[in-house]
Amino acid sequence: MTKPQGAALFESAKKIYPREIGGRFDRLSRLATISLLGLFYAVPWLNWDERQAVLFDLPARKFHIFGLTLWPQDFPYLALLLMILAYALFFFTALAGRLWCGFACPQTVWTEIYIWMEQLTEGTRSQRMKLDKAPWSWNKVRRKFSKQFLWVTFALWTGFTFVGYFTPIRQLGIDIVALNVGGWTLFWGLFYGFATYGNAGYMREQVCKYMCPYARFQSVMFDKDTLIISYDENRGEPRGGRKRSDDRQEKGLGDCIDCQLCVQVCPTGIDIREGLQYECIACAACIDACDSIMDRMNYPRGLVRYTTENALHGKKSSMLRPRILIYATLLLVLVSGLATSMATRTPAILDVIRDRNTLYRELPGDVIENIYTLKLINQSNEPRSFDLTVSGVEGVSLDGAPNPVEVGGGDVLSLPVRVRVHRDNAYGIMDIEFSITATDDPSVSIVEDSRFLGPSP
Description:
Layout: H1 24-42, E1 47-48, E2 51-52, E3 54-57, E4 62-65, E5 68-70, H2 75-96, H3 99-104, H4 106-122, H5 125-133, H6 138-163, H7 169-177, H8 183-203, H9 205-211, H10 214-221, E6 228-231, H11 233-236, H12 261-264, H13 285-297, E7 304-307, H14 309-312, H15 322-343, E8 348-354, E9 361-363, E10 367-378, E11 384-391, E12 397-399, E13 405-407, E14 412-422, E15 429-438, E16 445-453
Antiparallel strand pairs: 1-2, 3-4, 4-5, 6-7, 8-10, 9-10, 10-14, 11-13, 11-15, 12-14, 15-16
């Protein structure tokens, strides 16, 4: 097939100027934006027991979340948490469509605040469109510069806050003022700030339409009983303009007055009247827009509304269906498992590493010795003392280890120890057990298996 003469192989996307609209879903969106951004920017500044409340200390391999300290050994908790988040996404998508995209996705949240700053500096939708088409003037330069200043400042503060989850944020602020910031710290702060600036300021709906994989597989989780934003074609068609005083039945028109307001408020630039489209992020701005027109025309609300495909066609719709029950059951099991596992988590870890360089030593007095390195991890934030014992072979004893063993709060103690057994009881490969017990709480006790090597029998 040949390309028509004069046709372009590529056409850049036209800029979308979403119109401002009020309503119940707009208020809900603003509340979600303020709450989520408020948490993101405020949490790093909170303190807990004289340290940052939420801090992912990668160099120390400690992850502080308020009163809880997690270690790399706690990776199963992260795996469970990710599974819970995945099934929660499946559950809410099957139940009510793209709620995540419309109200909680970081791309949506940051785009909302960037659009708000654009409206603050450049005006309403019509004013922004007129400003972009106008030739450069002092007014245009002033407005564009003000917008860019707000955008860049907010992006840099976002990058600073992001790094503040991995580096103590107060010290980070002091280092920035003193121009004493490490290379990687500077890189990640600028990278995250640039990503925020580019995605929320310029790419916006392009991320949702072309880069986000969720839009592509969402239909797999939808069925005819999923709540989605829909246009009631039976009620709205045939569409057409009219005065409020006109009788639409006499003119043979539906309730849609073809005002295009639902298209103007859409942040992805789609027409909801064309049916469900993967570009729709379920922000519900079109519902608020249509309801405002219905109120002006004295028509019933709900021409565009949250509904199901079955309900839209007059069929029975059910919220309790197999996939919802399956997702809910899996979520309940996973959440219960995570909660139980966290509640029964032992606040200490013992790892036993046997010295592989020497199988065993023969000491005077017919004594056989093996050397081990014990890794004691105190997962609590308070220092603790542990009684250390070894058992499993008759006459086995420890040498070179203090008892009790002192381990600081959140510290890892590497302790070399020597285990000795009389030659009469040491032969071949034998099972032994190391155990530690907290002196202040006997319920905190850990037993770790190992092997003791002796001469062949």
